[in-house]
Design goal:
Structural class: alpha/beta
Strand content: 15-25%
Shape: globular
Strand order of the largest sheet: 6-5-4-7-8
Radius of gyration: 19 Å
Helix content: 25-40%
Distance between the termini: 22 Å
Number of helices: 7
Largest sheet: 5 strands, mixed
Number of strands: 13
Order of helices and strands: EEEEHEEHHEHEHEEHHEEE
Length: 272
């Protein structure tokens, strides 16, 4: 583990299956609703990966947030909440405010926790701008897994298909590439991963991957060598190294090199 480029000595390393707490945060606006419905229909797939000890909540948003199901162990309550998402009333979507609202609800929850964000990545109504939202995301300890619903559109109408006009924090407008970058950045800062399904058949495998990642995370702990409590943002980097300190090489049973990718949060704010 490197903290602002300085190697750190780990104090603990652990990995084990553990209960998870997940909020499904769903954009429920009528912009590109036909494509969003495809992703929602398969959201029921994620419910099948719930275990009896897991907690799941469902929140949707357009111009404001609505808690459809508070944290529950009951799969039927989660499905009933998803069942209410049928015909949206508004085209506006306040992604940034809704993400901040959900992160605030989860900040005091202990253990493994995540937000499953089903969204275009567009925002047209938030009080927070893009930079303000990212600061809140970077300061959070909740992992975010965005699933784009705009990718269905871009492969049909082109990468520069307009996201939404009058975008706060991005000037007068925002296109699909900017929305994609926003979702990637949100995931990167929290140690999650963004997904951009192009076809309906891609979605079930995405939910399986997310459920698997949530249950098999490693927890690495260290005490920073720099004790300064300056409130500044520290960049983190996690590397896998072999016994000699070289990059770790992994081979399969046939002796072929296996590619791997480390997914970890981008950094943290030091206390002030």
């Amino acid at each position: 583990v490197l903290d602002d480029g300085v190697p750190q000595s780990g104090t603990n390393v652990s990995t084990a299956e553990a209960p998870i707490t997940v909020t499904m945060l769903i954009e429920f606006s009528d912009k590109y609703w036909g494509f969003l419905y495809l992703a929602l229909r398969d959201a029921y797939e994620f419910v099948n990966y719930m275990k009896p000890q897991d907690w799941v909540a469902v929140i949707d948003f357009d111009m404001q947030q609505h808690i459809l199901a508070d944290f529950t162990h009951d799969r039927s309550e989660v499905r009933a909440a998803l069942d209410t998402l049928r015909i949206p009333d508004f085209s506006e979507n306040n992604l940034y405010d809704s993400l901040a609202f959900t992160l605030d609800r989860m900040k005091n929850i202990q253990g493994r926790k995540a937000i499953l964000l089903i969204s275009t990545g567009c925002d047209s109504f938030s009080k927070l701008n893009y930079g303000e939202m990212l600061k809140i995301v970077k300061d959070s300890d909740t992992v975010i897994y965005p699933i784009s619903t705009l990718e269905f559109v871009t492969i049909r109408y082109g990468q520069n298909f307009p996201c939404t006009p009058g975008m706060r924090g991005y000037g007068s407008s925002m296109d699909s590439l900017q929305a994609r970058n926003a979702l990637n950045t949100i995931a990167k800062y929290t140690g999650g991963q963004a997904y951009f399904p192009r076809f309906e058949q891609d979605i079930p495998d995405i939910y399986r991957q997310i459920a698997g990642q949530l249950r098999t995370q490693y927890s690495l702990g260290f005490v920073p060598t720099d004790p300064a409590k300056d409130g500044k943002y520290h960049k983190l980097k996690v590397e896998l190294v072999g016994p000699e300190g070289d990059p770790l090489k992994i081979v399969n049973q046939k002796g072929k090199k296996v590619k791997y990718r480390v997914v970890s949060r981008d950094g943290y704010y030091a206390p002030k």
